[in-house]
């Protein structure tokens, strides 16, 4: 059928539980498969937002008021 690849999938929960519960030096939010990528995307977007905000504040402060 159309949805068989989505519905009839092997149960991967036990192996994922073992991966997250393993004794490692990493915090839980860093143990996932794509966690580093997602955290880096989040960090870059936060830095970009702060830089954009500070640039806007600087532009408003340094411009001379018009008539």
TrEMBL record:
Q: What is its main location?
A: mitochondrion
Top-level taxonomic group: Eukaryota
Keyword Acetylation attributed: no
Where is this chain's protein located in or outside the cell? Answer: Mitochondrion inner membrane
Tell me the SUPFAM superfamilies matching this sequence. Mitochondrial cytochrome c oxidase subunit VIIa
Q: Which UniProt keywords apply?
A: Membrane, Mitochondrion, Mitochondrion inner membrane, Transmembrane, Transmembrane helix
Keyword Membrane listed: yes
Its GO biological process annotations read:
mitochondrial electron transport, cytochrome c to oxygen
Annotated GO CC locations: mitochondrial inner membrane; respiratory chain complex IV
Listed transmembrane segments: 37-61
Q: Which family does it belong to?
A: Belongs to the cytochrome c oxidase VIIa family.
How is this protein named in the record? Answer: Uncharacterized protein
